[in-house]
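On clarity, I found the account of how folds are encoded harder to follow than it need be. An entry of this sort, consisting of the sequence and the corresponding backbone structure tokens, reads as follows:
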Amino acid sequence: MTGNADIGVIGLGVMGANLSLNLADSGNRVAVYNRTPAVTEAFMSEVVEGQEIVAAPTLEELVEELSLPRVVLMMVKSGNPVDAVLGSLLPLLDPGDIVIDGGNSHYEDTSRRQAELADEGIHYLGIGVSGGEEGARYGPSIMPGGSPEAWPHVEGMLKGIAAIAPDGTPVCEWLGPGGAGHFVKMVHNGIEYGDMQVIAEAYDLMRRGMGMTPGEIAEVFARWNEGRLQSYLVEITAEILAATEDGKPVIDIILDAAGQKGTGAWTVIASMELAEPTALIAEAVYARIISSDPERRARSSRIFHTPTIEVEGVTIDDVEAALYASKIISYAQGFRLLSAASEADGWDLDLGLVASLWRAGCIIRAVFLEDITQAYLTNPELEDLTDADFFSGALGSAQGSWRKVVSGAASAGIPVPAYSSALAYFDGFRSPRLPASLIQAQRDYFGAHTFERVDRPRGEFFHRDWGEAADRSG
């Protein structure tokens, strides 16, 4: 028997619960299910008058509540739990029904599931949802991909719950087939890792290298949030550093061990597979790994006792410039990765559109993304973000401060892996000649891997008998 609910939501964790409420606020009739009845009961106690939400004790009853074609949104943990839910759900559905995975699934899993469900006549979408608890409740950034046939059926519903960009458009738009949506969300999360790391390094430089208090640093971040670094993460950083408990900075009672859920590492792995380095994101992931073992760090600090000294000759403006320049590099690397994946998988991603979806609702929302969107609108064929006049000019003007910060931090014994990595990447791609010629010669020497020559066309390969030291021509 067919019901009249517009969408069914499976999984009432923080994100699933808040998306359900958001959907109901937007005028949708919502049916919800959670495998733990107590969770469903707790959620239903929060439903207010006017929100059309009905609880289903079983998956079978959830499906019966839905109008045709049925639309089911899964908000469950990525990996095996998604496949388990699909295994129970699919026998209850009919051809033409739509299943949406709104979790952080790996994009290759999404591509596989779309193909498998297509064989059953079921349309499958993998959508990235960013914005955390507040975004899910009041308007997230939504990055949809998967079955093209499903998009017209759910477009209005998803755009209706999305955040609104400064120009009045919802930050939700079709990105492409297969795992396109989840890949874009994965890169978003990788960039988020990088953004958090460059902010943390600025804090560390001011705290240890300049002797500033958390309250003083909070004022700096609040000021930065009024300029070109204006963003959600800079805003909350100012609030975090200003917070006190029993007269002490809250930041000082938080263990310096950062966790992670894997999307940053996925981004780095994908970048290696696609030969597009996301070096800054990699350093952000490794920095969290190093932080996660405070006992080892304490032991090493006793063995290698090198007191941190003041960072000499570096100003707060220098730190701001290094942060901004490193942020440009991080986004440039991320967008190159998006382009490479799009070409490899045939997604035809619109990079300007991707940037526009991150302008509101998501964790990395920032005024900076307006500049990126404009760069791609100006030149849709832009190969590298650093080629755009706006960003190349910014990098050029930041060089002096950037180098001063990296060298000063190294002398002071303060790690700045993101700033250092970004600067090395910048120096690498602007160098017309790199020592890779030596590496390739070494490879040819011990493994006959051949090499190309600067005086011959690309694609012609040569091998040398390195046992003969005499110069040979030809």
Observations:
- The longest helix spans residues 180-209.
